[in-house]
Design brief:
This protein is an alpha+beta fold. The chain is built from 19 helices and 16 strands. The strands form five sheets. The protein has a four-stranded mixed beta sheet, with no helix packed on it. Strands 6-7-3-8 form a four-stranded antiparallel beta sheet, with helices on both faces. The protein binds zinc ion.
Amino acid sequence: MTVQQQGTGASSDRAKHWHSIDWAGCYREVRRLQARIVKATQEGRCGKVKALQRLLTNSFSGKALAVRRVTENQGRRTPGVDGITWSTPKSKIKAVLSLKRRGYRPCPLRRIYIPKADGKKMRPLGIPCMIDRAQQALYLLALEPIAETMADPNSYGFRSARSTADAIEQCFTVLSQADSATWILEADIRSCFDEISHDWLIAHIPTDKAMLRGWSKAGYLHNRVLHVTEAGTPQGGIISPTLMNMTLDGLENMLRARYRRSKNNSPKVNIVRYADDFIITGVTKDVLVNEVRPTVEQFLAERGLSLSQEKTRVTHIDNGFDFLGMNVRKYGGKLLIKPAKANVQRFLRKLRETVKAGAMWRQGDLIRKLNPLLRGWANYHRHAVSKHIFNSVAHAVWQCLWRWARRRHPHKGTGWVRRRYFRSVGFRQWIFGTETGKTLGSGRKELLVLYDIAGTPIRRHRKIKADANPFDPKWESYFEERLGLAMMDSLKGRKQLIRLWLDQVRACPVCQQMITKSSGWRLYHMVRKIDGGKDTPGNLVVLHPGCHQIARALGLSVVKPAPSMGL
Ligand SMILES: [Zn+2]
């Protein structure tokens, strides 16, 4: 055994306060262990993998990051059955020190019911206790590097560096050519999360078996009655998506081995998977129905899963299919990927409901509510052939807002209503906008306008390389580059932010970690406004949302790195 006990000793006296934790050091230690786990996995050294995992799950750094994760995410204020949330720095540091394997027993989940997308039926949701969430986050730190190393190359869901855009781009790759496969098996697994066999999970997932068994069998409390869970990944658990991905990994390699390309035969069997949603291509309907589908069903059956008979079907590319909110279809031999009809309609319904709810709001408040919706939806679809649909959505939104405005002033003429709510900016007219009351540096009044969805640039997405692994140091620069591009893309037009971010070498001065699109950011005034600080770039710095809290709590004076010369 060559595993060294580095940096894990004397953990309890490493930090007495949440705000004095050396976050940069924590990330460094965890990342280093994760990279070693990847290496040991690639070398097939199971004993060493286990030892490194144990080192990570016992480390102060791992525990601190796990607690940080569950106390900063969205559900942090929703307690489990014990009613406990960790909201103060004191309770957080106590939680870090209490994360132990010995004597730990998971609590049953608290069951709540939330309305389904159709608004009628209710969907059950299990809420774990904070301690169980933190334990799962901790063991996930040690499991994810293995999951990423063993993952199917064309699996894109619930993985840290991948997105739906990558999955859609892969569909384009395997279907767009003149000689591409023309038949598609659209697969739908029957309630995947709930049906996965516990025995299979415990036998095959390389993590602590006792912990995994505990989470799987925790059951749930409803009306003070304990219900036992017989199958499925731990509900509401941070670790569940990764467990599900690992359950389905291997399907791609199995198909690859079976349908190897030979000199005069190319069956073109390709799979594209996003979590439990996947498609498989093939040259004939016969291959998909009589060979591929039974193979897939057998693979699933071993894991306690089955295909939904109603929702699984085989389609021709000329008829097209919906996948991840997109429609993929060939028109006269040309593959076009557009926003799916059902997805567009659902989005319009949501917009109309928002405008309806805002009948009495001020115009600025309505715009602030609509803009994130419009921007988010446009961003999701901006890699597809969406120009035409963006225009029609823009028109539908305009109609909706015009009615909204007219209804507020039934006794005024159309000209008056137009002047009151719509502006002209440059060549664009009929822009739904209002003055914020602030005056810009140039002396002009600041204008708040509706996001221009029709003006969203359509840009081809650069697909991630299929075998890229974010935990493997050899991919580091590849990811840094991708990160930089994606970030610039999302910040376009916000020049000041870009300059700030570049000036601080793209990193957060508090924890020294990269600031990315997914980490989010907050502006921090180095001299507080109360103390006379200004909104000028010299007084601003970009931090992670979590680091922002810490900096605020400690009143940190963040030191900005000097920008490099000559730029
Ligand atoms: Zn930070």
